[in-house]
Amino acid sequence: xxxxxxxxxxxxxxxxxxxxxxxxxxxxxxxxxxxxxxxxxxxxxxxxxxxxxxxxxxxxxxxxxxxxxxxxxxxxxxxxxxxxxxxxxxxxxxxxxxxxxxxxxxxxxxxxxxxxxxxxxxxxxxxxxxxxxxxxxxxxxxxxxxxxxxxxxxxxxxxxxxxxxxxxxxxxxxxxxxxxxxxxxxxxxxxxxxxxxxxxxxxxxxxxxxxxxxxxxxxxxxxxxxxxxxxxxxxxxxxxxxxxxxxxxxxxxxxxxxxxxxxxxxxxxxxxxxxxxxxxxxxxxxxxxxxxxxxxxxxxxxxxxxxxxxxxxxxxxxxxxxxxxxxxxxxxxxxxxxxxxxxxxxxxxxxxxxxxxxxxxxxxxxxxxxxxxxxxxxxxxxxxxxxxxxxxxxxxxxxxxxxxxxxxxxxxxxxxxxxxxxxxxxxxxxxxxxxxxxxxxxxxxxxxxxxxxxxxxxxxxxxxxxxxxxxxxxxxxxxxxxxxxxxxxxxxxxxxxxxxxxxxxxxxxxxxxxxxxxxxxxxxxxxxxxxxxxxxxxxxxxxxxxxxxxxxxxxxxxxxxxxxxxxxxxxxxxxxxxxxxxxxxxxxxxxxxxxxxxxxxxxxxxxxxxxxxxxxxxxxxxxxxxxxxxxxxxxxxxxxxxxxxxxxxxxxxxxxxxxxxxxxxxxxxxxxxxxxxxxxxxxxxxxxxxxxxxxxxxxxxxxxxxxxxxxxxxxxxxxxxxxxxxxxxxxxxxxxxxxxxxxxxxxxxxxxxxxx
Length: 756
Ligand code: PEP
Ligand code: MG
Hints:
The chain is of the alpha/beta class. The protein folds into 5 domains: about 5-175, 2-Layer Sandwich (Beta-Lactamase), CATH 3.30.450.40; about 175-205 and about 330-430, 3-Layer(bba) Sandwich (Glucose Oxidase, domain 1); about 205-325, Enzyme I, Chain A, domain 2 (Orthogonal Bundle); about 435-450 and about 635-680 and about 685-755, Alpha-Beta Barrel (TIM Barrel), CATH 3.20.20.60; about 470-625, Phosphoenolpyruvate-binding domains (TIM Barrel), CATH 3.20.20.60. It contains 26 helices and 22 strands. The strands form 3 sheets. An 8-stranded mixed beta sheet has the order 7-14-13-9-10-11-12-8. The protein has an 8-stranded parallel beta sheet with strand order 21-20-19-18-17-16-15-22. Strand 5 (about 115-125) and strand 6 (about 130-135) form a beta hairpin. Helix 1 (about 5-20) packs parallel to helix 4, helix 18 packs across helix 19 and helix 23 crosses helix 26 (about 740-750). Bound molecules: phosphoenolpyruvate (PEP) and magnesium ion. Phosphoenolpyruvate binds near residues 633, 634, 635, 636 and 683.
């Protein structure tokens, strides 16, 4: 192919640079030679290299044209002067009249006052700023776009020299956030509470490109073409597979991918970079660096989304080009790590070693995302919607995942680390106190016992029974194992799973809830229905009754697993007595089927309903004689009582379950259940919060089911509570016009020494 003079020039320069880098002399001597070469090649009077030192300081390391005495003396903070601005924004700057720029910072020791124009680019490696490369001219020179491009390419080569660790101590090259190079705190949304510290592991590791300068640009173009074809056909395969498995939204995302993978602008920019003398992988990296810098300037959410699609594609392309695996190998995982991902599926999360996985940070994600549900079952903190976290973290960075306050600290300073360590130590001490009361009864000071149960959904939850001293499992969410599977589990598989749960629970009761799918909990292998209000849509018992085969299989499996044992079963999202009756009919059908085949039935059967839909409250006289027990799902009940989406972060905390209407409702429910002698429990999030649990006990609830980590704190609360005093305090408040009784209840706890 015919090459223009600039292209050949650029290649020649890159090769000479590479030769200097590979040549003799110290790193400093090579850098000195390089700035001289660049100045000559770019017809600039000045070329200077500033390298980032520890503490976000840019130090003049080499110069052609400025006073040599300034080398290693002139230092700028990130954000200070034009050089600092280039580092802070990770964007190039080309100015014909640099001194007129508001950020220009004059450094007399450099003698730069005679140079008017300036062009500078960040020295980037894997999106991280390692320094700044600058050329200057006396005249008011207008640097052309392709000159900026050329300097960026040179900076990539230089990045290898800096990263080599000879110029500055490797310790000083400690990862930084690529843009502001400071410890970073990112706020997100809380997907799972808790606090954890660990080394960052990127779910999709970033690839570092080492081979920058091409030997033969033609063959590099061929490599790029081949990798693109491979990547495009891999995406086609993904689309074909997703058609079979999911459809809907997933497909749209992949289609957008396919479109971007064929984006002419993107492809042209990569080819151009190869033609200028870069290897195929360095070209992909260069275009990706540009995109990253642009991403920080773009506020339009749609465009940002698209740019991050391109980032994903570039990563895929680099994988194809370098043959790097898409995931960290288990052996390389740190002992304690925080996993960082854009988004991920629940099964992917379970692939990681649970003992070492301490927390999860997602760039996307909502509280009802499947991965969040599984992470909660693993009892690790999860922060979602952590904006740009992937651009700001490097593998190995120290990360604090603070799920309680929905924040992430990356490379926290000493002070924060110490505060967190102190907090963790306090938690550990508290854990010890909880462990000490593990066998003690959950009984108030005035002798009223409250049964504390666990919410569970995975086999790994079972050991928590012993660890916490819980009386049983109050809610086993059967949909969780379904959600992390690739296909619908058959009866045998389900029966084996339920059998193991019963085995491990021993003589402690397990309350199985039939599949609560639909709405926000989707099965990867079930077609997704377009619904305007999925929470109020085709879900849970509604699907079960419309597709009885699925329910029957599950009931068959449960009956088989519980043969000769105690089976406690409840149906989710019951809105009317007729639904409960219909579900019970299906259950009886399965019992008869088992009997006919001579199979043993459970020794004891209890059938209950979840109370999550307010309509049921007005059907209690018909419902209560029909059920063996009721369990309040306070998460959904609050959502429907206040018409307030439980997954919408903008509404999080807007209405409080500790409000007079919710509490009055629960008091009435307690009374009616008592009148019919129907045991009542509560298994939503409320039960696990000590203050909320205190109110529930005050209202008469005697059976609470919660996440394992809540058992200790709730038991402590109960054991320090004088119930009669609380009952007297609470009764008149239930008709108060308050938004919430949280403050008053907290004051009661404080005044009466209740541990909350
Ligand atoms: C609830 O709604 O309170 C409940 C326990 O069920 P889930 O959170 O699984 O919807
Ligand atoms: Mg529910």
